């Protein structure tokens, strides 16, 4: 950065980043503890010790998040500055609340990892889980394209490695390899899209991009959208490839079933919940905030934009995910297709949020409904993957048939799993129902020109939910209607508490969703209204070289 | 916009021509005489022993990775040291120093980890 002005860096801002810093350092400690004091101990004893130590990480994050609440406003945390570190990272309610969610998911994943011995390198394994969480936290808070990309890479590189951690299983190596190859290509395309975006706007700040696009739309007098802007359309497409890969949206989903099935169950859970959660928040930030002027119209007569592309992706994703899930026998593979389908539902919510953002009425409500859905989906999915960890520990395999008879042997956990399946289908009184309802009801608030298209998407989503009931019900049938001689044995504590916690969340937020809905709504409004100061001293004016493509792009539009 | 990308296009053409030209020249003028020795695998001039398709120990890769880490460290330290005085005059001194210390500590932990895990012992 050009040292044109005295550094405005303020070390007290680091307080807002303390969860990330804590988890980074704690990962280093775990690495050293595993090879230092615990050297030479058998694997299962190190698994328990290092795993229990790793749990201190998310617990510490909770303590840091709760400290300002306990100490009272103004103490320690200072005022909630929306933009930190030269405006690249947000310290808004969105980042704070999602730090809490990510820490909770991390704790559940660590718990599941302590269920059985699938590797020898426990220090490195738990450190990778923690560092992936750091990447997710920064990704949720990123307000600038480079930070966003770095966080995305930090998260996925840790997950590539973790997916291949079950070294004596070929499927695990295959999972890591496929994830890595697909992921690196998607990242390269994503980065290319970001560079095009920078070339067109001359800035990498999300709010700066929005401002440039709004100004250029005002200058040309067009309503917005991408018609005729070939470079802009390419940039949007490439960015959607990157996000589509992380969300496992069709047609960028092929890695997901193999990776989820081959990777150890806790890692699959972490990819399906944390990675998807953080990526979708980043997608919403980029699309709903920075690229909102390029959204285009849904109705059809005006110029096209990314809304139409995302609508096509959403429709294809939920239909394909549900139809493919019907044929699956493996629990993790079934959950992989289910997570693909849920990505499709969430993209419908993103569209609804976009259209309402444009009409200006209830922007935060719609985006908040998507965030609510996202949190509920992540919690229930981690709970469902914990069942796979249980089977892998007891039987060394995780087919749906292996759940046979668990309703008799461990009725409590079976009921909890049934609740999770009902929540994933979206049946009342679970949170899955409330979140789906909240998200799809927002479509009714969309402006009239867009409503017919969106209603079509919602109808498709409802048909898909009915289809999905079939394969989730196969889990219920295995649990309660079948008998089997083989039993995975009693569930270890690391598996049972994530399942129980997820089921409690599914029922609790199903009966009383208001607190979570409200906090997600305030998080969403913080996300959508975040602005840089009009002329920040540290943000240099766009260089003349970078400004040339802007005029070129507008000339192409004419 | 076009003139700017035009330069990149010219550079691209020049680069491709630079790479292809020697190949074309060689293909046109070089004599071709085949012999058994020329068909053998090249091992720094030493006569090849055993199969060429041997498996390498995974330790080679660990060493290569560790070397790469410290290679990158040097690459990063050098421009930092060169520009440090200028940055310090502009008032960034402490900030830049802390950044570098953080980077070095992270690398040091990586080295300690590799050492303690026994990756530096050749077995």
UniProtKB/TrEMBL annotation, chain A:
Membrane-crossing residue ranges in chain numbering: 12-33, 53-74, 94-115, 122-140, 146-165, 177-200, 230-249, 277-297, 303-323, 335-357, 369-392, 413-434, 454-473
Q: Which UniProt keywords apply?
A: Cell membrane, Membrane, NAD, Quinone, Translocase, Transmembrane, Transmembrane helix, Transport, Ubiquinone
Q: Where would you find this protein in the cell? A: Cell membrane; Endomembrane system; Membrane
Q: Which Pfam families match?
A: Proton_antipo_M
The family database entries (InterPro entries) matched by this protein are listed as:
NADH-Q_OxRdtase_suN/2, ND/Mrp_TM
Q: Which reaction equation describes what this protein catalyses? A: a quinone + NADH + 5 H(+)(in) = a quinol + NAD(+) + 4 H(+)(out)
Q: What class of enzyme is it?
A: translocase
Q: Output one GO BP term.
A: ATP synthesis coupled electron transport
Cited NCBIfam families: NDH_I_N
Biological role stated in the UniProt entry: NDH-1 shuttles electrons from NADH, via FMN and iron-sulfur (Fe-S) centers, to quinones in the respiratory chain. The immediate electron acceptor for the enzyme in this species is believed to be ubiquinone. Couples the redox reaction to proton translocation (for every two electrons transferred, four hydrogen ions are translocated across the cytoplasmic membrane), and thus conserves the redox energy in a proton gradient.
Name the chain's protein: NADH-quinone oxidoreductase subunit N
What taxonomic lineage is listed for the species of origin?
A: Bacteria, Pseudomonadati, Planctomycetota, Planctomycetia, Isosphaerales
From TrEMBL, chain B:
Source organism, top-level taxon: Bacteria
Q: Name one GO cellular component term.
A: NADH dehydrogenase complex
Q: How does the protein's chain sit in the membrane according to the entry? A: Multi-pass membrane protein
Q: What's its catalytic activity?
A: a quinone + NADH + 5 H(+)(in) = a quinol + NAD(+) + 4 H(+)(out)
The record's EC number reads 7.1.1.-
Record-annotated membrane-spanning stretches: 6-30, 60-80, 92-117
By sequence similarity, the record places it as follows: Belongs to the complex I subunit 3 family.
Q: How does it assemble?
A: NDH-1 is composed of 14 different subunits. Subunits NuoA, H, J, K, L, M, N constitute the membrane sector of the complex.
Q: Mind telling me what this protein is named?
A: NADH-quinone oxidoreductase subunit A
What's the source species for this entry? Answer: Tautonia sociabilis
